[in-house]
Description:
There is one protein chain. By secondary structure, the chain is an alpha/beta fold. Helix content is 27%, strand content 28%. The longest helix has 24 residues, at 169-192. The protein is elongated, with a radius of gyration of 22 Å.
Amino acid sequence: MRLVFAGTPEFAQTALAALHAAxxxxxxxxxxxxxxxxxxxRLAPSPVKQWAQARGLDVAQPRSLRLDGRHPEDARAVQERxxxxxPDAMVVAAYGLILPRWVLESPRLGCLNIHASLLPxxxxxxxxxxxxEAGDAETGVTIMQMDEGLDTGDMLLAERVPIRPDDxxxxxxxxLAALGARxxxxxxxxxxxxxxxxxxxxxxxxxxxxxxxxxxxxxxxTLPAAVIExxxxxxxxxxxxxxxxxxxxxxxxxxxxxxxxxxPGEVLRIDACGPVVACGEGALCLTELQKPGGRRLxxxxxxxxxxxxxxxxxxxxxx
Length: 319
């Protein structure tokens, strides 16, 4: 089976590696253009591009796939490649560009998407983050036949995964990436012998996983402790939790429930795990913090170099 692969981050790179190892022919890989990254803001290739080029796969980085968009020359170049390659299927995983109808209809079997949720729950850009933030007990991966809607296509395969009490987006991402890689290989093998049975998504239970905004990092201490704790796990590794202590803006990366009550943001005591801070309901022990320009530190290390005492108040950074 001849495939075109479209993806950008590590989640997609895991799937590309699995398809390559399974022996599928991949004559073309599409990925986002290089983006500025790091402190020097130098252009950096995506994980998918790095992996593909290291193995001699042909890579294209169109700025758009719309023939009537701002970069029609990019779209036409890809169109010509697809017409020449005549792929059996396109596999899409966290690509980041909208696929117009002409792309969806180019491969013989259409475009198969690896989506990190149990559709129709958490359609959209940030399904892993939002599942943790909402306190879902489980999530999973759905292999979907793409259509022109936002994650509205028929479901082909799906598998559930429990969300652990200590899961962050980083840890859950890795498990779902491995699951998605396995499921897309299975789906294509079934497709080759006509063994896939598309199923419409239910109309009930639709939710949208909106893109994570950096402004969401600001911790609102009036929220219940359980809500703040889930948000910290959901926003690890990006954008983390932001709090102000005096004139210092800190990152809060991890916390655990603790006994206590008081004015939201107030430091109630210093426990072995770290400072215990009152929330709108309950309290949290902050277990991992970071100062500007520093690195993530366990609370014990952080407190060795920073004064935090009972009665001090953590504030919410201004938007």
